[in-house]
Design goal:
Organism: Ancylostoma ceylanicum
CATH class: Mainly Beta
GO molecular function: aspartic-type endopeptidase activity
CATH architecture: Beta Barrel
Pfam family, one: DUF1758
Shape: globular
Oligomer: single chain
Largest sheet: 6 strands, mixed
CATH topology: Cathepsin D, subunit A, domain 1
Protein name: DUF1758 domain-containing protein
Distance between the termini: 15 Å
Helix content: 10-25%
Number of helices: 2
Strand content: over 45%
Radius of gyration: 16 Å
Structural class: mainly beta
Order of helices and strands: EEEHEEEH
Number of strands: 6
């Protein structure tokens, strides 16, 4: 299952929390961060690893050496979590958002559910 959610992550250089959107794959053995986001957060590599990677939306795996960095994230309850994440150029191609009909919006609201 892939979960998409907004979270707060720490920019260690500015010591500030910044909101980001992420996808969490509960079945994955490795977590990824885009180079763009890692650079924006000024995250430093602590290691590197040569990987064969199959990304969402791609038919051909790529082989490359990727940096590994530490990401600190806070959940909606304010609890901190630390992840070792692998840097990659792109995690996924652009995703298309779907419109939600009024009936579905009411259901979400009536059941206090957030997307």
């Amino acid at each position: 299952m892939i979960l998409a959610r907004q979270a707060q992550v720490l920019n260690p250089e500015s010591a500030t929390l910044q909101p980001v959107y992420g996808m969490l794959d509960t079945g994955a053995d490795r977590s990824f961060i885009s180079n763009e986001l890692a650079n924006r957060l000024q995250l430093q590599d602590v290691d590197s690893k040569r990987l064969t990677i199959s990304t969402f939306g791609s038919n051909m795996p790529i082989v490359k050496t990727c940096g590994i960095t530490v990401l600190q994230m806070w959940d909606a309850n304010g609890a901190p979590h630390t992840f070792m994440v692998t840097r990659i150029d792109k995690v996924t191609k652009s995703l298309q958002r779907n419109l939600i009909c009024l009936e579905d919006k009411r259901f979400l609201c009536d059941n206090d559910l957030q997307l």
